[in-house]
Structure formats: structure tokens, C-alpha cells
Design a protein that fits this description.
By secondary structure, the protein is α/β, with parallel strands linked by helices. The chain has a single domain, classed as TIM Barrel, CATH 3.20.20.210. It contains 15 helices and nine strands. It has a seven-stranded parallel β-sheet with strand order 1-4-5-6-7-8-9. α12 links the parallel β6 and β7. α4 runs parallel beside α7, α9 crosses α10 and α14 crosses α15. Bound molecules: coproporphyrinogen III (CP3). Coproporphyrinogen III binds next to β3.
Length: about 350
Amino acid sequence: MSLAPTPVPPTSPADSDLVRAARGLPVSRTPVWFMRQAGRSLPEYRSLRAGTAMLDACQDPDMVTEITLQPVRRHGVDAAILFSDIVLPLVVAGMDVEIKPGIGPVIGKPVRTVADVEALPALEPEALGFLQTAVRQLVAELGATPLIGFAGAPFTLATYLIEGGPSKEHARTKAFMYAEPEAWSRLLDKLAVSAAIFLRAQVDAGAVAVQLFDSWAGVLSAADYAERVLPHSRAVFDGLGERDVPRIHFGVGTGELLPLIGDAGADVVGVDWRIPLDEATRRVGPHRSLQGNLDPAVLLADRATVDREVRRVVEQGRAARGHIFNLGHGVLPDTDPDVLTHVAELVHELTTR
Ligand code: CP3
């Protein structure tokens, strides 16, 4: 009779493969989840969301709970990510923000002057009761599966506030950063305080890891990022105080910023598809784990291509201290959900120890 050891499945979220990989500890298999795993790729999401505005759904604890659980049930991923949005703290603070379908967040009164920065309303922690209710419900439902909490990083939120909505070049944002350095720093300070409040609320209610989304940081030079942005992102992580949860720090197009993104206080650096994970490991250094980095567009290709690319990412991820398999950015709405389920299974099959 064979007495080969069988991998022991994780029994608690805080000791899950996701948390262990984030800390560089041994895992039973490479954990996998997908950014935007909840959302329009899932028919059950589209039917539940029908008739409810995005930001209303985000403030309804039962909807948040159900939408967060949908991809976990369907795909067997190793983590849930709270269904919410990076602009939610602004909404809860009382700002006029709307999420327009197919466009993204639109701000009623963009921030364009020093006075606009001073007038930004503060986020009161007491206003996040609905979020903590959702997190507690989720933790009760999820069992050993960890829940990831998240927030938008100060820079990425500032792009929406200053541009008034999504933009490609973020030219107004950069112009404000150069022309009004004091107001810029004050704005990012305020956004860091609110992001830290948002994260603490999630962790204190039971989230066991956090991800800071600085999706658009890749538009900056390393020098500007280091001087004008990184200290504010570091302030968000510092705002977690003694809370012992791994921190994931993600941006798109950040190849040149990878060492700095790690320096802001991350246990895990999220990498997009532009830089292979073995090269990312060289840039980030040996003391942090990596998350990524399958190109979400690959999921629209044929199955043989999907499998080849998944294998490549898994192999290149072996160079890292720890690897959390993910996409290089969010799931595209046209993605066939069965392909996501297949990718989760394949990653598990390739990496079971
Ligand atoms: O990842 C998850 O499954 C958790 C939920 C999540 C959402 N937004 C739900 C959402 C997370 C982590 C976010 C973060 C977010 N929101 C980011 C950072 C991540 C990234 O993609 O870079 C950004 C930049 C936003 C701002 C935002 N909100 C955009 C650009 C959009 C898309 C607009 C569109 O319709 O294409 C949103 C809306 C949004 N946030 C949707 C979802 C599921 C789609 C809304 C819908 O279903 O109608």
C-alpha cells in the first residue's frame, strides 16, 4: 500500500494557499483567482444585477454577498474578492459619482482647483456598516476560502476625480500633479486616508488579505511615481497598522515601476502580461511573491492556446518566492465562463504537490 503523503487541504482562510503563497510559504497547489471574477462574464451575475445600478448593488449586503460567492461556486477559485468598486468610498463620503455601463466611473463635479481638494468630503468609518455586514456574511459562507478586501490606490482614484471619468492619457491629472504639487499631495493624502479606512473596515470584519489597485500608475515615469505617488500608497498600507494580512499591490503597464511597487509595503506584486514572471522576479527581488499574469485576451482564443499560455505562466511563476495565478488585468466581459473554470482546474492540476 502506498503511504505517499497526500497534500492537506487548507482548513482556515488565514492558513489558505492564497495567504501562504503571499507569504512565500509552502502550498498544497498554486492558488488561483481572477481579477473581476465577479461580473459580466457570468450569466447569473447579469440576471441578479438586472434593474439595479452598480453602486446600489455595492451598498446592498445581500447582493454583495451573493455576487461575491458566484464565481467561487462556479470556478472553484482559491479566493473570493469582495464585490465592490474603487470609487465606493467616494460615494459613501457623499460625492456625486455614477458608474456608467460600458464607460466606468463618472464624477459630477471633477476636482480641478486647490479649493476643490479642500472641499472633498471625508469618509466616516461608521458609514461602512453595510460593507462590514457583507464581509461577515461572506466569511460565514466561505468556510476555508479566503476573502480578499481591496481599495483603489490614491493615484488611480485621483485620475477619475481630476479627469471627471475614464481617460487614456490622464493628461489633466499629470498637469495638476506638476502645476499644483501641494494640492496634489494634499489630494493623495486624503485619498490614502479614505482607502485605509475602507481596507480596515474589511479586514476588521474578516477579510484575510488585501489588494491595492493602482491600475493606471503605469502612465508615470519611475521618478515621478517614486516622488509623487509611492509615499501615498505606502501610507495606505501603513494605515493597516498591526493587522497581519498579506498585501497585494497591482498596476497595469508597471514594468519599469515593479521594484518601487514592491517597496511601497507589499508582500505580493501584481504583474500584467507585458513582463514574464521570471523577469518580474528579477525586478521585484527575492523577498516578495508575485501575482499574475495571463493576458485576459488569451481567454478569447482557442483551447490549445489557452493551455499553452497557462503552462507558460505556471512555469515562469516557479521563479518567484510564491506565485498566485491570476490574469494580468480583469476578466473581459465577453469571456466564456467555462474557460475560466478550465483555467482554474488546469492550474491546480499542473501544480498539485
Ligand atoms: O474583481 C472583482 O471581481 C471584484 C469587484 C471589482 C469591481 N471593480 C466590480 C465592477 C473590483 C476589484 C473593481 C475595481 C475597479 N473599479 C478598478 C481597479 C481594477 C481594474 O480593473 O483596473 C477600477 C479601475 C474600477 C473603476 C471601474 N468600475 C471601471 C473601469 C468599471 C467598468 C465600466 C464598464 O462598464 O466597463 C467599473 C464598473 C464595475 N466594477 C463593474 C464591475 C463588475 C461593471 C459594472 C456592471 O456590471 O455594470
